[in-house]
């Protein structure tokens, strides 16, 4: 999702990072999890420029993404898909991350302890 572009000082970090992940999914799908984990581990703070293209490429390389796949990042091949999929997700009621849906309804309770979410899932399942 690219909804944090507005928080990256005009560098469109979210779009560039999402495009890079999609490029890896297309060219080296077995490296997507490692690359995604690296991006999250080095996630920049909101309100900063985000990672540069070179920094994104280094994280990908360090995660084992082949050089020929990394070389495709600047083409932004998947930018239209990133934009369309972000819009489609927002059209479903998602307003940010994390968002949890239970049977299609957005969970409005507190997500950071097991109790409320567990209760909501149990209730949706129909258990006492």
UniProtKB/TrEMBL annotation:
The segment(s) forming the Thioredoxin-like fold domain are 12-108
The highest taxon in the source lineage is Bacteria
Gene3D superfamilies cross-referenced by the UniProt entry: Glutaredoxin (3.40.30.10)
Give one Pfam hit by family name: Thioredoxin_4
Q: Which InterPro entries match?
A: Thioredoxin-like_fold (IPR012336), Thioredoxin-like_sf (IPR036249)
Listed SUPFAM superfamilies: Thioredoxin-like
UniProt-recorded name of the protein: Thioredoxin-like fold domain-containing protein
């Amino acid at each position: 999702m690219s909804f944090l572009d507005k928080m990256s000082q005009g560098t469109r970090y979210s779009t560039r990072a999402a495009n890079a992940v999609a490029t890896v999914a297309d060219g080296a799908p077995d490296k997507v999890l490692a690359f995604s984990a690296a991006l999250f581990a080095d996630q920049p703070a909101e309100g900063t420029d985000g990672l540069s293209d070179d920094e994104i490429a280094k994280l990908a390389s360090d995660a084992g993404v082949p050089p020929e796949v990394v070389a495709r990042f600047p083409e932004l091949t998947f930018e239209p898909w990133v934009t369309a999929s972000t819009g489609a997700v927002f059209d479903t009621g998602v307003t940010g991350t994390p968002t949890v849906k239970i049977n299609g309804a957005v969970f409005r309770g507190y997500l950071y302890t097991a109790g409320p979410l567990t209760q909501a899932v149990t209730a949706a399942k129909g258990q006492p």
